[in-house]
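Example 5.3 — Polysulfide reductase NrfD
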Amino acid sequence: MTFEPIWGAIIAWYLFLAGLGGGAFVTSAFLGWRHPEAVNMRKIGHIIAPAAVIVGLVLLMFDAHAGFMNPLRFALLLTNFGSVMTWGVVFLAGFTVVALAAFVLDRLKRPVPVWLDIAGVAFGIAVAMYTGALLGVCKTFPLWNNALLPILFLVSALSAGAASVLVVGIVRHADEFNRAGVLKKFHFCLPIIELVLVAALLFITCTNSTAGWNSVMSLLVGEHAPLFWIGLVAIGLVLPTVLETWLLFFSPKEFEESRAAHWISFGSDAGVLVGGFLLRYLVVVAALPLTMVVPML
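Solution (predicted structure tokens):
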């Protein structure tokens, strides 16, 4: 028996962009706290955050064909606060409003107040974790119904958000990128944590059911193995860790601030973004449902 995934690349893009937007805002707030001199990189985060989430929401609505036929269904999502989807709408709406407010303040050359930063960070973290909790609602899919998934998606979102800001910072504001040492070291830790969480998620999933085992095997040795090992593990997690370890801890200071090192960092952070998308895509398409047995009456 074959099984066609109920969701595909569009939903994976939505999950990735929503998490990236939240992570970008958190990165911007972190820069304001530890690197207040990185004014332009902070503004980059304020541009990426609402843009990524809005594009993700458009993709979600495009995927929800029935919602376009009957737009009232979107409004009805706010009527059941016992639903994860309802809370997701609240988090996404709140985050979008806060992120747009920060963007407008930047355009008006006015400072973003601390309370708005705190609200954006809270909503951004909630959005990133919600994307994992949304999948977990489907209890018949062992790969999704796992308490580690929201945590994994949060770490990945923070990593992707930071990578997006750093990538643009390398190209547009190299001087600020050179001074953002604390952010770069914090970001360096995230792929390592993510790799441990991926391993834990797969171990737990493969031991709880036959469907979980088959889902994990499709990633490790099955049809999704090339994307998993080459795309997610090698390009998205291991390579960035190796490159940043060398740049941050073993290369001379003069080289670390050179343009050659900048392009190495660019490749590293681009790899993180590739891995962030592939994580969600593989989790979506590799999940297999439990076999339901209905007794004969």
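Remark. The chain has 13 helices and no strands.
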